[in-house]
Amino acid sequence: MPEMELSERAEEILAALWVRREERNDTSQPIGEIEGEAGGEAVSELVEEGLIEEKSGRISLTEEGEREAAAVVRRERLAERLLVDVINLGESAATEAACKFEHLLRRGIDDQICTLLGHPKFCPHGSSIPPGECCRAGALELGKVVSALSDLAPGQGGVVAYIHGRQPEMLQRMLAMGVVPGTPITLLQKFPSYVFRIGQGQLAVDQDTARDVYVRLTRGPSGTPAPSSWFPRSLWRRGRGRARRGR
Hints:
Distance between the termini: 30 Å
CATH superfamily of the largest domain: Winged helix-like DNA-binding domain superfamily/Winged helix DNA-binding domain
Number of domains: 3
CATH class of the largest domain: Mainly Alpha
Radius of gyration: 20 Å
Structural class: alpha+beta
């Protein structure tokens, strides 16, 4: 099936409707909130594509629109993770650039980026990333540059990229133990508990905690460099250029 090409404004409306439903439990939006001529044209575009429907002055996602909206949100939030975790762009700059960068992460490419990043579940701001086929299949391919601590092999390490921190007490405990972004970390063993070296000390955690700590890889289990150098350089350069221009 050919990939659907939508205008940037149309994708913004789809994403806003998806976020409104998923995070605010509101399934529709007043059409009067869509501002400007470009907004009106985008609404017409989405209606013609069968992605939204208009009723009583409000617009809502169709079944196909829900799938397309989730794909847009997924690409935007993966773009944020990519810009923060791999290109080391600050979170505020990454948020500004992600909407433009998202257009590079078309279907297929977004799954490759997701695998490179270790199938992250949350964007840098803590919002959930809709899973893709690669996540549902549990794809673990060579070439990832960020991985959950629980997925590392003994001897493999890097620096802490981020912590999911779904439970505030767990996040506070990790911070108190020195498990903070940018700190060198190496997994030493996986059984009966996950033991890792952080800084000059060693710590042991359970599997659930190890799943929430994500590591930017710098070396494999044998001490060889991690495959971060396999990241698509053309994509890196294009994204970096867009980010610098603040687009």
